[in-house]
Amino acid sequence: MKKVLLGLIFLCSILTNAQETGENSLGTWHMYFGTNKVSEKFSIHTEGQLRYYEQADNFNQLLLRTGLNYHINSDAIVTMGYGYITTDGTFEEFPDETNSREHRIFEQLILKNKVGEFLFEHRYRLEQRFLDFGETTDTQHRARYRLQVTLPLTDIFFLNFYDEIFLNLQDDVFGQNRLYAALGVNVTNNLSVQAGYLKNHFPSANFDRLQIGVTYNPDLRGIFKKNDSGS
């Protein structure tokens, strides 16, 4: 219980010190993530995110992503996937921005390890981005690295932290950096919820974001076995 209270105090201190920069509003990201096993070695990644400039208001971005995971072992996963992103960039302080649609292909490697009670996850990702701005189109390439650390407080509560850097493979190298801290709750063995704070740093602006994330990982191997036996 002491660990949970310390975790809440830590997150509250981060939120209290969050600076309203960028568009000068505290926005929100509402997120769903799923990893669904379909065989011993393969699983399907599903993801949906709604991002707002303000708290559940003033739409900014819709992100839908899926991929096929190959589990090399319990601590290593490779993924090939696709994402569709639509963005409304026309906020009051960015009158020159335009709306865009993006088709994205990505390749990913996740490595996991444990040090004491801390669970570490290293995510390496390459992205090929096909952008449509209406009158113009562009193709861009990007590399991302995320270091995530999870600390179980009890069987139910946990803390989650990550830092992720985005590096452009054309033009200016630095794209953005995301620093995140959250308190999570294990609702069941395959369902968890996180509430946290994200500092999104760009070369010319910083954005403060509250995040609500749901992770649901049902095992679908039983369904596939039934279908196979029925055929």
From TrEMBL:
Entry keyword annotation includes Signal: yes
Organism: Zobellia barbeyronii
Protein name in the entry: DUF2490 domain-containing protein
Keyword field: Signal
InterPro entries the record matches: DUF2490
Signal sequence, renumbered to the chain: 1-18
